[in-house]
Specification:
Helix content is 23%, strand content 32%. By secondary structure, it is of the alpha+beta class. The chain has a single domain, classed as Pnp Oxidase, Chain A. The strands form two sheets. Strands 1, 2, 3, 4, 5, 6, 7 and 8 form an eight-stranded antiparallel beta sheet that branches. It is globular.
């Protein structure tokens, strides 16, 4: 259930540990320069020092890591137990301080390949190694270490009830990020759809209840798993559970994502907009859709997606590594 070396020196609640250790996805919220939360699905891992929750992002799409480097106030919501093997899983909200690790890209990639191989064997089962090696744009990683300061959790996912809470010991501080890279980020990042409506209609039809994120008064994002969302001409009417932290009119992010139990496919759709309180929930007025790296399910489509992304992102990979004074890592089989 837990890593053999996990010793829990920070005294995290034992009730939440299975969720933190076994979840194959959670929703990660960081904050833009303008103070808007952006939430995306990620795979969480227990930190090597047992004091952090770790997640990674690709070097070729480092925007979420750079947001953390500028503003370390982040949140992780564990609200999707699919693939964890847990019955009556909790919903867990973690708020904490993030730190970026990109000083050693080779070590980062080696660690990611090893940990993801254990946690997400479906990533390896459908694609031969020679294809995986061509995904250097994907395996070259930046790590983000999150030091939890606060946890809220709802037993058995009953979000209509008040949450239980935990606060970190007085004096807890986050890690310090590695120094930022030199120069400007090269162009050619994730392209966002020009029109959000087709993507929103597809997400509302197929993806299930989304996660709504707004900013709390203390500067931390607050992601909440909704009970449902209905598409409107301007965005969505979002039905929220009764036990969520209070939400007020503010900028926000609405995130949909789906995957199977073995993570052989994953799709996501996220939207930035304005949140307005309304009877029975909130109105979310969409301003734009975010770009994404959804992984299609069929083997031929996954191969084509991997190869086409590699051709397109190879120059960006070299440029981002050079900004950090490094060469792109060698992708090594564990």
């Amino acid at each position: 259930m837990f890593a053999p070396t996990f010793t829990n020196p920070s005294g995290w609640p034992t009730e939440v540990l299975p969720n933190l250790a076994r979840a194959i996805t959670c929703e990660f919220a960081s904050v833009t320069r303008l103070g808007t939360p952006l939430t995306v699905p990620v795979t969480p891992y227990l930190g090597e020092n047992s004091r952090t929750l770790d997640l990674s992002t690709g070097l070729t799409y480092p925007a979420k890591a750079e947001r953390v480097r500028r503003n370390p106030h982040v949140a992780l919501l564990f609200s999707d137990p699919l693939g964890s093997g847990l019955s009556d899983a909790l919903v867990v909200l973690v708020q904490g301080l993030g730190a970026v690790r990109d000083r050693d890209l080779q070590a980062n990639s080696d660690r990611y390949i090893e940990l993801s191989r254990r946690k997400l064997p479906g990533l390896y089962s459908q694609l031969p190694w020679f294809i995986l090696r061509r995904q250097r744009w994907y395996w070259t990683r930046i790590w983000v270490h999150v030091t939890p300061l606060r946890m809220l959790w709802w037993p058995a996912g009953r979000q209509d009830e008040p949450p239980r809470t935990w606060e970190a010991p007085a004096g807890t501080v986050g890690e310090v990020s590695d120094p930022p890279p030199m120069g400007l980020t090269p162009g050619g990042g994730l392209a966002a759809p020009r029109d959000w409506r087709p993507r929103a209609a597809d997400a509302a039809r197929r993806f299930g209840p989304p996660v709504l994120t707004v900013m709390g008064a203390d500067g931390f994002p607050i992601p909440v798993r909704a009970r449902g969302a209905v598409l409107t001409s301007a965005g969505f009417h979002v039905d929220l559970p009764d036990g969520h932290p209070g939400l007020t009119a503010a900028p926000g992010c609405l995130t949909f994502h789906i995957h199977d139990a073995t993570f052989t496919f994953e799709e996501n759709a996220a939207f930035v907009g304005a949140v307005e309180p309304a009877d029975g929930g909130v109105i979310f007025r969409v301003e734009r859709a975010l770009g994404d790296l959804s992984a299609p399910g069929s083997w031929p489509r996954r191969v084509w997606a991997a190869l086409s992304a590699g051709w397109r992102l190879a120059p960006r990979l070299r440029a981002e590594a050079a900004r950090r004074g490094q060469a792109p890592p060698v992708i090594r089989r564990p």
